[in-house]
Amino acid sequence: MLLLIAAAFFDVAWAANVLAPNISACNEPIGLPYAEKNYRCCAPVPSYVPRLFRPVAPSVGDNIRVRRTSHSADEKYASDLARAYSLMKELPPEDPRSFVQQANIHCAYCNSVYSQMNSSERFQAHHSWLFFPFHRWYLYFHERILANLLGDDTFSLTFWNYDHPNSTNIPWLYSAALSPYPDLCTAIRDASIDHPNSTAALDYGSDTGARPRDIQLSENENAIEGHGYLLCGSE
Ligand SMILES: *[C@@H]1O[C@H](CO)[C@@H](O)[C@H](O)[C@H]1NC(C)=O
Ligand SMILES: *[C@@H]1O[C@H](CO)[C@@H](O)[C@H](O)[C@H]1NC(C)=O
Ligand SMILES: *[C@@H]1O[C@H](CO)[C@@H](O)[C@H](O)[C@H]1NC(C)=O
Ligand SMILES: *[C@@H]1O[C@H](CO)[C@@H](O)[C@H](O)[C@H]1NC(C)=O
């Protein structure tokens, strides 16, 4: 999530209007992550009129879900999360809750798959005001699916409090170097980034060759404030 936010600063289409996606106009994805083979990730056209979703306000007595920081996650939490992803990966690929379909959703809305309505421009949920609403609903349902697979309605995702000095590296449960759970980490990630003592480069996407920690932290602050683009932008 964080890397996506940071990446979004670097090729912002300033003030571009974004029209709704035309889900009947499905194209090949553009700009899939490094090393990923191109594939068609369009969702099946629904046989029903999509319903407007509104979160239900909590009532007294409801279970409160607490989102903890990733760095403070304990072994119990990490093993539950790993089990949830393992269950998600065991679902048949065509199941809308499956890991494959969860990945397809990000591909479809974030890799320029759909055309915009009445336009040949592609729809992309990054680089505009849509970034936060899209990822909020995506993560909302993703979290609910994980909770449902675990049979634990109180289950929640953690968040990366990357601006705390103790939390500037990849959270341990997602680090291939530290996590005992292959379902939570990827061996594809550059080992120098995954390293437990590496300061994550929040200005990801610009020239982020290895920097001394104090300089990287200062660049991270710039990126968090949205100034990263102005300092390092390539436009
Ligand atoms: C697309 O264009 C048609 C014809 O001009 C118009 O009726 C329709 O409202 C437009 N749809 C969108 C989503 O802009
Ligand atoms: C949506 O895409 C389909 C298929 O390309 C096309 O026929 C239709 O005119 C498009 N609708 C709009 C509103 O752009
Ligand atoms: C940050 O790390 C220091 C040194 O290990 C520790 O004393 C402190 O409690 C940590 N703070 C947080 C908020 O994790
Ligand atoms: C991380 O850095 C600390 C302090 O320099 C060091 O003690 C520790 O061994 C390092 N951990 C790894 C896995 O490199």
Q: If you had to describe this structure to a student in words, what would you say it looks like?
A:
This protein is mainly alpha-helical and 235 residues long. It has one domain: Di-copper center containing domain from catechol oxidase (di-copper center containing domain from catechol oxidase), CATH 1.10.1280. Helices cover 32% and strands 4% of the residues. The chain contains 7 helices and 2 strands; from the N terminus they run αβααβαααα. It has helices spanning 2-8, 75-90, 99-110, 131-150, 191-194, 213-224, 228-232, and strands at residues 21-26, 114-116. It has a two-stranded antiparallel sheet with strand order 1-2. α2 crosses α4 (131-150). The radius of gyration is 19 Å and the shape is globular. The two termini are 23 Å apart. Residues 1-15 and 227-235 have low confidence and may be disordered. Bound molecules: 2-acetamido-2-deoxy-beta-D-glucopyranose (4 copies). One 2-acetamido-2-deoxy-beta-D-glucopyranose (NAG) is lined by residues 196-197.
